[in-house]
């Protein structure tokens, strides 16, 4: 089946969808994105992603290209047309295509933003076998820019990080700045130490994960202690458990860091419980 995608107000077969070569995201990575998961045909935490999108755009002097309700309708229409049961919706908003290359931002009155959405079907996304075995991560220097709280499409370094992990026989990389873990290449990083969930505090150093916010809320509701502070790779290697969160992996156990097993090298019980709570509670509120 040919995917139907959304480009600037139109629903088109993916083979007919086009964006200008002068698009600011193509030339300058001048755009932001969101990834929202779909489970059982419903969107997980749509509201959180819409709020973050608006914030990312605002930080870059861009406006929401449509109302939140209209955006939800585009998401739903794509889920329907592409018959997505489980999967992801990718959304990208760029500063548009001013018709030439120029470092200065174009006038938003004359250059419309480019809005693209497409679906990725991933049957059984919530039942990934990897959640039962866990992933192995390596540590790498965090060489990204200083505004990681804005979800821009500058993903070259995260992409290189995943390649470095693959070459090292691992599944992903945790990035380290000034000796402390910032986050994973496309996820937030956590350890469990003395029974407490530890994850880096929010700042411009990391993306404010929508899954992170939900998981920490559910954890507190379940009387689990949370400590928002940074930690080192050495501390993580000695932790009781470790895991990552993101819209595409939910809560995923980490069982090895730089070749050192975490605990007995198997996914931890509290991580498994958090994954269960996250999926149960998020599904209840899915739209
Ligand atoms: N990545 N940190 C980074 C650097 C990310 O790219 C992501 C998400 C997260 C987790 O955020 P959330 O819980 O809102 O998905 C943290 C998406 C999934 C991606 O690039 O595919």
UniProtKB/TrEMBL annotation:
Keyword Amino-acid biosynthesis: yes
E.C. designation(s): 2.6.1.42
Cofactors (names): pyridoxal 5'-phosphate
Catalytic activities: L-isoleucine + 2-oxoglutarate = (S)-3-methyl-2-oxopentanoate + L-glutamate; L-valine + 2-oxoglutarate = 3-methyl-2-oxobutanoate + L-glutamate; L-leucine + 2-oxoglutarate = 4-methyl-2-oxopentanoate + L-glutamate
Pathway(s) the chain acts in: Amino-acid biosynthesis; L-valine biosynthesis; L-valine from pyruvate: step 4/4; Amino-acid biosynthesis; L-isoleucine biosynthesis; L-isoleucine from 2-oxobutanoate: step 4/4; Amino-acid biosynthesis; L-leucine biosynthesis; L-leucine from 3-methyl-2-oxobutanoate: step 4/4
Pfam family, one: Aminotran_4
GO process annotations (BP): amino acid biosynthetic process; branched-chain amino acid biosynthetic process
Alphabetically ordered keywords of this record: Amino-acid biosynthesis, Branched-chain amino acid biosynthesis, Pyridoxal phosphate
Alphabetized InterPro entries for the sequence: Aminotrans_IV, Aminotrans_IV_CS, Aminotransferase-like, BCAT-like_C, BCAT-like_N, Class-IV_PLP-Dep_Aminotrnsfr
Presence of keyword Repressor: no
Single GO cellular component term: cytosol
Top-tier EC class: transferase
GO-annotated molecular function: branched-chain-amino-acid transaminase activity
NCBIfam families hit by this protein: PRK06680.1
Family, as annotated: Belongs to the class-IV pyridoxal-phosphate-dependent aminotransferase family.
Role this protein plays: Acts on leucine, isoleucine and valine.
Protein name listed in UniProt: Probable branched-chain-amino-acid aminotransferase
Organism, scientific name: Allosediminivita pacifica
């Amino acid at each position: 089946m040919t995917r139907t995608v959304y480009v600037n107000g139109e629903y088109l077969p993916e083979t007919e969808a086009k964006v200008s070569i002068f698009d600011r995201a193509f030339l300058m990575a001048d755009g932001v994105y969101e990834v929202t998961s779909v489970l059982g045909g419903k969107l997980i935490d749509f509201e959180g992603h819409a709020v973050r999108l608006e914030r990312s755009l605002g930080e870059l002097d861009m406006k929401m290209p449509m109302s939140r309700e209209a955006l939800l309708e585009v998401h739903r229409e794509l889920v329907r047309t592409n018959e997505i049961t489980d999967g992801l919706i990718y959304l990208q908003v760029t500063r548009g295509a001013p018709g030439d290359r120029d470092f200065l931002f174009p006038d938003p009155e004359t250059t419309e933003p480019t809005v693209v959405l497409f679906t990725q079907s991933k049957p059984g996304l919530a039942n990934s076998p990897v959640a039962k075995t866990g992933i192995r991560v390596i540590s790498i220097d965090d060489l990204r820019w200083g505004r990681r709280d804005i979800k821009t499409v500058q993903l070259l370094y995260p992409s290189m990080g995943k390649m470095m992990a693959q070459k090292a026989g691992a599944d992903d990389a945790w990035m380290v700045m000034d000796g402390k873990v910032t986050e994973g290449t496309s996820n937030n990083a956590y350890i469990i130490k003395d029974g407490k969930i530890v994850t880096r505090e929010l700042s411009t150093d990391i993306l404010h994960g929508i899954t992170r916010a939900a998981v920490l809320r559910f954890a507190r509701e379940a009387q689990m202690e949370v400590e928002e502070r940074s930690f080192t790779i050495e501390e993580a290697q000695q932790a009781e458990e470790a895991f990552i969160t993101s819209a595409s992996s939910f809560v995923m156990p980490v069982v090895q860091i730089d070749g050192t097993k975490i605990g007995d090298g198997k996914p931890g019980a509290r991580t498994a419980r958090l994954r269960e709570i996250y999926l149960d509670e998020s599904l209840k509120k899915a739209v």
